[in-house]
Amino acid sequence: MNSTSSTRDRILGTAEKMFAQRGFDGASLRQLTAAAGVNLAAVNYHFGSKEKLVEEVFRRRLDALNANRLAALHKLAGGEATLEQVLAAYIRPALELSHDGKGALFMRVLARAFAEHDDNLRRFLSENYGHVMRQFTAEFARLLPHLGKAELYWRIDLVTGALTHAMSGFGMIQRKGDVSEQEHLEQTVQHLIRFAAAGLSHP
Amino acid sequence: MNSTSSTRDRILGTAEKMFAQRGFDGASLRQLTAAAGVNLAAVNYHFGSKEKLVEEVFRRRLDALNANRLAALHKLAGGEATLEQVLAAYIRPALELSHDGKGALFMRVLARAFAEHDDNLRRFLSENYGHVMRQFTAEFARLLPHLGKAELYWRIDLVTGALTHAMSGFGMIQRKGDVSEQEHLEQTVQHLIRFAAAGLSHP
DNA sequence: CGTATGCTCAAACGATCGTTTGAATCGCGT
DNA sequence: ACGCGATTCAAACGATCGTTTGAGCATACG
């Protein structure tokens, strides 16, 4: 077995792009393998099925994304972090991912998956990355003690919707020529954090 | 030609349900017509094509929804309405639509369409209902003069994402047995309005 | 050298898709 | 009662889908 099959990676990269553009059903394996320059049967050989390929596209990005989120969260002083800091730990890794060309496509894939309400995919996400969301929710609960449990979950859901919506469009937003990429990213992070903080903590 | 063909309406109603459940590509005309109890060819006879059927599903709901939104907006005292009132004019009709059983499905269809970034559908929505969004944006600009144009658009986009996300899940949220439907709706409207107002108007 | 083993390839499989067709049936004005 | 347009119907069309197959090629190991 090859340790890093070029065919496997080309399929994954092309799949990410085409899933973002045409959706999971809309992107056929024939279009996908043709665009990747590999044989049609290579997908089933390397991944087993189209659905397993979808899961692998998610796993590759989300493993890194959620590891970064947890690392940022744990780096904060336990029990003393501010709401803005916790939000930054949640938002910045996602925005950094959506900032480079290929990661931006993945955020659109993610937004699509949210909207599709696909039960298999939701179970996959919950099983593999639910613990991350749980840790952040616990932090939010500590920082917003005046909110009831239902109210807190509700606001987090609203913030999640806003962020998903925003990041699925990020990267397509025209950036002014007089600010650097890093500056643009930082400004966007600050906007998102302030928006989320305002929505979460209002009385 | 029949003025209100039962076949036409059954197709539209079933299409809304199945598009919400399985997406536009995922719901086939064979499943759809079988569930509606009509012949397969009836879709192409009454609507011309599957894509025209999709547009008609949108048109039927959005005509009423946006008319209600504009009526609520114009009923406000011109130039003196508060941010919360304008938000209510925007949010309440959508939530009322998503409150009855069939409208709730439509909101999921709408959320799906947002995530799919389909160019044809976006053009259709922009051409037919763009003027509504423009009027609300003008009101927001009047009420939030301290925000730059770019900043305002950005926050409206975030609010739109949050609302779409929330309303696509609304109706699935379990309602406590001790509050009436009307009460539940009103509480939800108030939550959404306060969340949106906080996100829009924060410094 | 011979032969496993990992991988690629063209071709085909059955299933399902949206659409079209032409005949059968319905419903109403004259 | 008759005729005609509107509607429904079963059947078929070509296209495309995900998956499987078996032969061919490569590389490494005994």
The 3D shape of chain A can be described as elongated
Number of helices of chain A: 9
Sheet/helix structural class of chain A = mainly alpha
According to CATH, the homologous superfamily of the largest domain in chain A is Tetracycline Repressor, domain 2
Helix content of chain A: over 70%
What is the straight-line distance between the termini of chain A?
58 Å
Series of secondary-structure elements of chain A, N-terminal to C-terminal: HHHHHHHHH
Give the rounded overall mean pLDDT of chain A. 87
The level-1 CATH class of the largest domain in chain A:
Mainly Alpha
What integer value in Å does the Rg of chain A equal?
Answer: 18 Å
Main sheet: strands, sense, barrel of chain A: none
Secondary-structure arrangement, i.e. CATH architecture of the largest domain in chain A: Orthogonal Bundle
Which chains have the largest interface? A-B, 34 and 35 residues
